[in-house]
């Protein structure tokens, strides 16, 4: 008869988490895609693998980042934004940003000409204020199709033929109209200025389920849990638990983009039951998980 383990035998430890090695790349020759009055919207296309990081950079023009497949995260000085395929991120001129591929991503970038002192997708002056900050926008099927059709050739090649340029202008006008119509959604996570707290927050963003308690998260910061809790209230105006819930919601959006069912999403995010996860979502955003994640 085969040997049987003793009733009190210690169970085998869980397999170690896979170690993912990030790769860092520079912004892809933005000087070859400069928008202008003649070509107010320019498009770039880049396919990048998971854990690729585009280093921080900025532009004197506005930008929209769209991943037609895969989820990306954009980090700006004051926060981080999760962008699944059903969303896009508007970045105003001059805002430094870095891009992380949460999954393999088909990254489409649009650059927008902004006349001096103006900001937005060709909106009236009275409507510019919301566009002077980063905004996560819903992406309609039409907008996604228009982005795919935009020419993405750089300026170091042959100039666009008159017919192609004429078509690009029509596509650009439709893209601007769709952006003006797009609903804004909250998928951002605020980030602090304090270096110790910033390091902790970025660690949570990378893997929000790695620890459960603030004491565990604070261990690598060189600060006590009490100090970290005070910094959260001072810099972000909330508790660590409240902030981490926003990160959990952002990760849930990432998982929902992969068509995971609610019970799998809840389990992967460390909840003992789908009902516990549902209660957190309702408490935080006032919607049922199906409503909050259904369009991701």
From TrEMBL:
SUPFAM superfamilies in the cross-refs: Homeodomain-like, RmlC-like cupins
Region (Disordered): 1-21
Biased composition (Pro residues): 1-19
Boundaries of every HTH araC/xylS-type domain copy: 195-295
The UniProt record lists the keyword Transcription: yes
Protein's name in the database: Helix-turn-helix transcriptional regulator
Keyword terms, alphabetized: DNA-binding, Transcription, Transcription regulation
InterPro entries linked: AraC-bd, Homeodomain-like_sf, HTH_AraC, RmlC-like_jellyroll, RmlC_Cupin_sf
One Pfam family from the record: HTH_18
Keyword Transport included in the entry's annotation: no
Entries under PROSITE patterns matching the protein: HTH_ARAC_FAMILY_2
The organism's place on the tree of life at top rank: Bacteria
